[in-house]
Specification:
Strand content of chain A: under 5%
Radius of gyration of chain A: 19 Å
Helix content of chain A: 55-70%
Number of helices of chain A: 9
Largest sheet of chain A: none
Oligomer: homodimer
Largest interface: A-B, 66 and 66 residues
Shape of chain A: elongated
Amino acid sequence: MTHAERRAQLIQVGRAVFAKHGYEPTSVEEIAREAKVSKPIVYEHFGGKEGLYAIIVDREMDSLYLRISDAIAEGSPRQRFEQAVLAFLTYVEDEPDGFAVLTRDAPMQMRGRGMPSVISDLGTRVRDIFNEQFKTLGYDAKVAPIYAHALIGMVTLVGQWWGSDPRRFKKEVVASHLAAIGWMGLRHLPQKPQRIQ
Amino acid sequence: MTHAERRAQLIQVGRAVFAKHGYEPTSVEEIAREAKVSKPIVYEHFGGKEGLYAIIVDREMDSLYLRISDAIAEGSPRQRFEQAVLAFLTYVEDEPDGFAVLTRDAPMQMRGRGMPSVISDLGTRVRDIFNEQFKTLGYDAKVAPIYAHALIGMVTLVGQWWGSDPRRFKKEVVASHLAAIGWMGLRHLPQKPQRIQ
DNA sequence: AGACGTAGGTTACGGAGAGGTAAGTTACGC
DNA sequence: GCGTAACTTACCTCTCCGTAACCTACGTCT
């Protein structure tokens, strides 16, 4: 096997193993065993466990960003919203291992702001999109991150639940319900929500 | 120190350590060290790492359930909804370590249905509440779990984000925005959401 | 043809730290 | 004085990350 082939194989195998156990409980030996190779090969290619993990997370994040970016490229706001949700679920469907890696606990060096998993970083990106929209619509842009994280949390947990048994619902059905609650929630937002009572 | 006191202390210390590192990366030795005690004491009280962890999770789940149950005990539906969200955030505020334990990766024996963390079990309980409401309102009760998990994911991720720096927003502000998007989303739900385009 | 360099790979080991346990120790009430 | 509750020291075994040293097949150049 050539260098590049082996590298690609290790990334694929590593992703599956990390998805199964999470970062800490997976051993380099198990990855090597699954790849039918000995341990030093992994170290030669990635320098160690964390190096391999970092590359896997990076690739998955890129893949997810790309899918969502494409999805919101055009259409009415309502269409973009629904397309983004659908793209997210499509990622969950196409790359269950990658999604699992992104939602499981990351190693300590990668944890930011009390968020144990990597996927919460999506919140900061979505916030930027919302900031813009909020300003033009006359809402208070300061609270945009609340809504950003709310939507990410929504699609992430539903994605995990749906992805654990995709035969329960068709992807499009889940996406339309998810888009409905999110869109309607945003659409009918009062300018200044007040606590009732 | 008496048996009960020591036990209570170990639960408290263990919760903090599990919250900091997650299940796998914490060692019994570290818990013992933080409690200024030797390792066999932990084994005497809880039988091992997993025993201590199970008790901690159980207590925290009970605590969270109790808070939310109290919150939705009375009031209009809209009030109950908002009170539930506020109760959740209050838990995040009062018990940051407990909340962190619930959101971090659980050991493999405790993972169910592809959900790595324990808190997703809330989804199944919320589903039961929704089932009832959905039927009386004429919606398709089959999709209730979608909305249940959507709401849990929403408050959980926002809770993590807000809890990592609570000074950004007052708890009541976050709760009202969260309740607004959730409530308005549910309130203006079409009977049968259709994918646009 | 035959020596040789190199890419790709293995075996074997070191050091550290994990979970868990057996045996022994202190202190205190009776 | 003695039993018991609370606790410690010391250890066993296992597994992990990471590395040093060695090996093998194959194309190439003389």
